[in-house]
Every structure is written in C-alpha cells, then in structure tokens.
Amino acid sequence: MTHILETRQLNKRFGGLHVTGNVDFALDAGEMHCLIGPNGAGKSTFFRLILGEHLPDSGQILFQDQDITRAKPFQRIRQGISVKFQVPGIFKELSVRQNLVIALQHHVDPRLLAEEIDRLLEFLNLSHAQAQLAGNLSHGQKQWLEIGMAIGLKPRLLLLDEPTAGMTPDETHATGEMLKQLNAEGMTLLAVEHDMAFVRQIAQRVTVLHLGKVFAQGSIDQITADPRVAKIYLGEVDA
Amino acid sequence: MDNASPLRRTLALIQGPQTLGRGRRFWAGFAVVLALACAYPMFADSYDVGNNVYFFNWLFMALGLSLIWGYGGSLSFGQTAFFGVAAYCYGVLTINLGDAYGLTLFSLVLAVACSALFAAVLGYFMFYGRINGVFLGIVSLSVTLVLERFMAQTAGPEWAIGAARLNGFNGMGGMPSLTIPWPGGPIVLYPDLPLYYLTLALLVVIYLGLRILVNSRFGNVLVAIRENPLRAEMLGYDIRRYQLMAFVIGSALAGLSGVLYTSWGNYITPASMGMTAAALPIVWVAVGGRGDLTTTLVGTLLVLIVFQMLTIHGSQYALVVMGALLVVTVLVAPRGIVMALVEGAMRLTRRKEAR
Ligand SMILES: Nc1ncnc2c1ncn2[C@@H]1O[C@H](COP(=O)(O)OP(=O)(O)O)[C@@H](O)[C@H]1O
Ligand SMILES: [Mg+2]
Fold first, then answer.
1. What ipTM score was computed for the predicted complex, to two decimals?
2. Is pLDDT above 50 for A239?
3. Most exposed: A99, A102, B65, B117, by fewest CB within 10 Å?
4. What domains appear along chain A, each with residue ranges and CATH number?
5. Transmembrane segments in this chain: where (chain B) (predicted)?
6. Between chains, do A102 and B234 touch, taking CB under 8 Å as contact?
C-alpha cells in the first residue's frame, strides 16, 4: 500500500508547550481515516502543520512521496491537499454561489464553470440558497458550503476539522454519506471528529492523539475496546 | 453565452457580482450622465470648465484606493506618495525634455511607470514581509510623510535635476502642460475644453476597465482575500501576489492623478504628500463607499465639491468638516454614505415590486 501522506518525527512547540511531539503518522492512499482525541490534544495544530500554516520545529512531511515540509500553503493546496477548517472559513459578504466560483475558477474551464457549480450546489443541497450571502446561512449549511469549497478543488487528500460540529443527527448522517461517496470516487479523507457514531459510519482506521502524541491506532472497534483510550477521555491518563 | 468568444466574455464582466449597477436601467442612466458631462461645456464658461477639471484629476487616485482598500482589504494611508512621485517625475522630465514631439505624453507614461515601480518595490516588502492591517497603513503613511519632508528641504540650488529645480517647500513650477502633437500645430492641454474631454475620456475608460477587472477572476480572488485571507490561500491562491498586483495598479492610478494634476496647474508642492493630503483620499473613498467603484466615484466627486465650497470660508474649517464627515460615516454608515443610500433605494424598489 502506498502512503499519500506521511509525517516523520514531527515536532511543534508554542513557547514551552509541546503541541505535537515526534508524530510519526502515515495515511494510505484511498482510505478514510479519523483523528480523535480530547480537546487540546493537538489535532488542529497537526492539520496546520500539514497545511503549512505553521512550520514544524523539526521533522518532515511527505505528500505523495514529495517533501513538502517547507512548501508554502498555496503550493500544498495546488499539489492536491484541501481543507475544511474547524471554524467555518467562508466568504461571509459574498453569495453562496460566488464562494464556490472562487473555489473552482482556478482549475475549471470558464465555459464549464456554471454547470459545475450547479452540480456542486445540488450535491450540497444549497441550490435554493445560492444567491444568499454566505454569512446568512445556518451553521450546518456553512459547514456544507465550506466542505463544498474544499471538495471543489478536487483534492487527492481532504482534511476535515470537525466537519459535523453543530449539525443535527440527520445532517451529520447525510454528511457521512456524502464523504463516503467522495471516498468511493478516489479521494483520501482525514477527519478530526468527536461524534463516535459518525466515526463509526465513515472511518476505516482511527488514530487517537493525546498530548501531541499518537496514543493508539486501529479499527474503530479496537479503539473503543481499548480501556486506556476511554481513560484519556475521562482525564485519568497523562502520558 | 457558453460558447462566446474570450473578448465577448471579457466585456460581459463589465457588470457582475462585484459591481453595483447592471441591466438596461443602469446603463441608460450611465449614458445620460455621460451625455450631460459631455454637454456641460456648452453651457458653461470655458474658464470654469478648465477649472473644474481639477475635480476629475483626483478621481483616479480614489478609484485606485477603492481597488486596494475597498476590494482588496488593505488600507493604504499613503497613496499620496505615488501621486507625488509621479508628479515630480513628470515635472523633472518635461522641464528637461520640453513639450515637442509628444514628449509630454512620453513623460506621462514614464512618470506613471515610476510610481508603479515604486509601489512594486514598497509593496513587495510590505506584503511579502507580512505587514498587514494597521501596520500597512502606518508604513505607507510614513513613506509619504518622509517623501514630503525630503522634498521640503530641497530649496537650495544644489537640488536640481538637469534644468529642473526642485525648490523645496515652495514647490516646482513651470513644467509644460500635456501636449498632443498634431499636423495643424500641437494641441496644448491648458485647463480648457480639450483637457476636459481628454480627462473625461480617460476617466470613463479607467472606470469601465476597473469594472471588468474587479468582476474578473482576479477581482474574485481580491474580494476573497478581503473576506478571509487564510481561506483564500487555502484554496490555492498566492494571496500576496494578488495583494501586490492590486497595490501596484491602484498606486499607478494615484500616479496618473499626480501627473494630471501637475500638468493641469503646472505646479506641484511637497504638501501634496503631507498628512492632510494623505488623509483626504481616505475620507472621499470611505464616505462614498469603498467597496464599489461607482459609489467611490460619486462619493469622491460630491465630497470634493463640498470641500471646495467650504474652502471659500476657510480651509481649516473645511478640514474639520471632512473629519466630522468621516466620523459620521464610520458611525452611521460604515460601508459608505452613498452606498447606504443606494442600498436603501434598492430595498425600497424591491419591496414595491414584491407588492
Ligand atoms: N497559535 C498557538 N499559540 C499557542 N498555543 C497554541 C496555538 N495553537 C494551539 N495552541 C495550543 O496547542 C494545544 C493544542 O491545540 P489544538 O491543536 O487546537 O487542539 P485540538 O484541535 O486537538 O483541540 C492547545 O493547548 C492550544 O492551546
Ligand atoms: Mg481543534
């Protein structure tokens, strides 16, 4: 199995705080992987390192066997990584449609752009809202819009930071099905998630991050059966 | 539409999501305003017409600031630096080269190019050095104030470039007006009808050109950066390059204002880069509505005219009113007063149509 993403001994400190410590992590091409861990475990920071928003203090990041440790964020995106942030990052004062135009214009033929966006709006269930300002959408719709912008780039690897936060159970389930469809089309997914039902719905493998370190890894059944994992969520283990 | 030629597709961008005004009604209104502007000299004294070109001269700088600040979200407080650089360049070049053979037009282009180059260098260090937000304003303001100070101490005879004396705070004068070579004898663009029409034509071309620019892919990215720079970068855009390009274009327009102003009055002083001069474009653009080219244009023209009327009663008094106007705008209509009026009118018509 080839790795689409690999981190080697990745370290990041903020002042005295060791946010990621020697993270060795590998993601198989084509898999759906969930990253879980208590608040403050360093999950979002790990994403930011992969994206280049932060640079690591030491260690290496490989994407499709290329070293991207020092690449600029926009270069990593162009190589095929895309992200949905934890806090919805949309263009609030622009229409829903315009948000998608900006995401797609740079790699879609202008003659096909309108059609492509119609299809994406349909997929996201946002066709009726396309003329609204993105800032006026409900929280769940904002999440979907941003997922739409992220997948509009047709990435090889999609990073999702808490994609279902604030969604109703129905919306969460629909999101899961949407992601499974994308995965079936060949997209590799790495999602940070708290909702265990959702993790069960989509994840083939799960990694637990705790205090900036890989704490456990395995199938969802192995992880939920692991008593040490249950304990860190109750705050009883500190290493 | 899908199979339209690239040229047709480009022209179609003259209206779009990033500009107010679309459809027959708007363009009919545009045509009427343009016709009135063309007819105005027939009903006015040619001396007044020439004087009033003064108002047009500033609009290029205002449109440029709208692009940089209103569309791109970077508040530059120092657009007068590029105004001044181009103005002095024009003066030095034309005093040395003279006004024959279309050399004043050559000087215009070279002077604007100088201000664009200066903006490219300064902008490179600012944007790639990650100077954002208020710091961008502080740095750009410092630059224009330093230039003002520098030019103000060039009174001595040693401060001359060729035949052009810089003349310190008294300012440089005596440069020729723009002159178009013509078979029947050159047309000198004194403040008179030909200059009026030339400036108006430039204004229309640049206004329409900018409309196309802000509705293009480039403009889409620019407003995306204004709304959320991190998201824009994480869509694969090299945001610093876009910010820099907008800054250079907007600053070249400030430079064009500088050249036109200098040619119009045959005079330029360091005060044109001073604190007051630097603050005024912010007022024009903010009061009109920086987020749209048309509200910027209308707002700037109105504020300039009001300012001129007040100046008759004393320039200090006029400046205080400008400050008050800015405060009122920020408090009451942060997106601009003209913008608020337009939005109000649109809401009213929509409600009427709904009934
Ligand atoms: N820019 C930063 N500066 C300082 N500390 C930070 C920064 N970003 C995150 N942290 C700290 O790093 C730790 C991990 O944060 P984060 O990656 O957001 O965790 P998670 O996403 O797993 O909840 C937290 O203790 C947080 O306070
Ligand atoms: Mg997080």
1. 0.92
2. no
3. B117
4. 1-80+157-239 (3.40.50.300), 87-154 (no CATH)
5. 26-43, 55-73, 80-98, 104-127, 134-152, 195-214, 244-261, 267-286, 293-311, 317-342
6. no
